[in-house]
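Our working data are protein records whose layout never changes between entries. The record below serves as our worked example for the rest of this section:
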Amino acid sequence: MSVKRRIPVLAALAAVVPLALSACSGGSEAPAQPSGPVTLTWWHNGTTDPIKTIWEKVVVDYHQAHPDVTIKAQPLQNEDFPTKVPLALQGAEPPDVYQSWGAGDLASQITSGKVADITDATKSWITQTTGKFGENWQVDGKQYGVPFEQHFVGFWYRKDLFQQAGITTPPKTMDELNAAVTQLKAKNIAPISVGGKDRWPDAFYFNYFAIRECSIDVLKQSVKAVKLEDPCWTKAGQDLKSFLATQPFQTGFAGTPAQQGAGSSAGLVANGKAAMELQGDWEPGTMSALTDDKQLDSKVGWFPFPSVAGGQGDPAAVLGGGDGFACTTRASKACADFLQYLGSEPVQTQLAAQGAGLPVNTVAAKSLKTDTLKAVYDYGTKAPYLQMYFDRAFPTAVGAALNDAVANMFAGQGTPEGIVAAVNQAAAGNK
């Protein structure tokens, strides 16, 4: 999920992502690449349309244009990657191409020695294709992956349900969001859906409260040091605790998946059972596969995460990241060539036109499917600062600890101080 333009937000994200991608190296260019026909095993998360069909067409088209290269795609549910990829990288035959979100997560993976350094194979084209956004798939200045989409997170909402509740304009402040929750409840409408079963959607809330409470300098410093010391982090947890106390989510949210089936959090919004969801720009594409409503696009709007009174963060800063792929060492040159194709204008235009995501190749942005997606793209790429999701910005184990601690608070356990402590303890154990 990630496309990115070369504008201030890119410079900002690039500044964040030198991150703690510190001293983890270990990926390497394969010493001997296969000669002759090559079969690449490709793990991606395109399990539903529209991206499922796009990737199927990519496999066919690429083989026709490159008869010596066969792509064997294996779609996996998004939530399976955190467990399956580390196990595969410990094994003898990891996939040749696999979904990667870059940053600290990728830095953790290259310590396996199985992730290929594709710097030389990509240097002739990556800047032209991805701009500075591609730097978020670098570790210590070496390229270990390539993005194909960029993402921005905000609230997707049902215009018809807002109208039923008498909400005339999207909330711009937390007070206005809380008032909207109250109005929706008064009409027996679930105000906000969340896929608590998968935990990462819970984390979006803490992420955003931190972005609103912490200054940009603090965010950068904290991610680089992998340590939460400033009081703003605890304040973000307190904001989250106060928000949870308003009971804004659907009944049974802790057992609700994010994207699987009509009863998922995305499915609830798609079928008019909930009014809002805090999700990325992939949401329209996800929802379209979960409903028979062919008019859904016209019923859905988007607004940024509201401002937080007294916060030190920039109220226009945005949470996001990107989807990309990394290569393992067996056939890294063939893999890198395939990644170049995924960033090409024809493929990127299909992603944009079909509503599968925001293209990383800016030439394709004009083909975005709806005016709403164009507005999200413009908002995100013009934002003064973009913070990568913390579970990707931090090393894998630290990001997982953060998500778990936030999910515990959603479940009525834990404290704001406990979230900060969990991250710092995981970071200490990760060194």
Observations:
- Residues 1-31 have pLDDT under 50 and may be disordered.
- The domain at 153-317+394-430 is CATH 3.40.190.10 (D-Maltodextrin-Binding Protein; domain 2).
